[in-house]
Structures are given as C-alpha cells and as structure tokens.
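Structure ticket #2291
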Amino acid sequence: MNRTAADAADLTWFKSSYSDSSNPSDCVEVATTPGIAVHVRDSKHPDGPRLTLTPAAWADFVAMTAQH
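Resolution: structure written out below.
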C-alpha cells in the first residue's frame, strides 16, 4: 500500500539533526514517506501546521541551508 500525505497521522517523527540541541523544546521534526514526501513540523506544535515536500525539494532545502 502506498502512503500519501493524508496518512501523516501514522508517521514516525524524529528531531532534525539541524535543530539546536541546547534547547530540546525548540526543534524541527521530520518524518518521511520514502519516495513520496518529507514532512516537517515544529516540535512545540505537533498538531499545528506542517510542510510536506517532495524528496527533491527537501534535498535542495537541506543543501541550501548547509551552505549558510
């Protein structure tokens, strides 16, 4: 069965390695549906807004932020 963005309630979230480890409550969390989407949310508001990106868009975003 293919997962879609609508299945986000079943996702396994993890804290991004780019989050500030000095304050564990201020984190970006990421969940993936391999080959379909990368989901991003604020750990302080897990039921709040979420970004859903294609894997290519996520890779571009990570590459761009790693340069700064």
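Closing remark: The radius of gyration is 12 Å.
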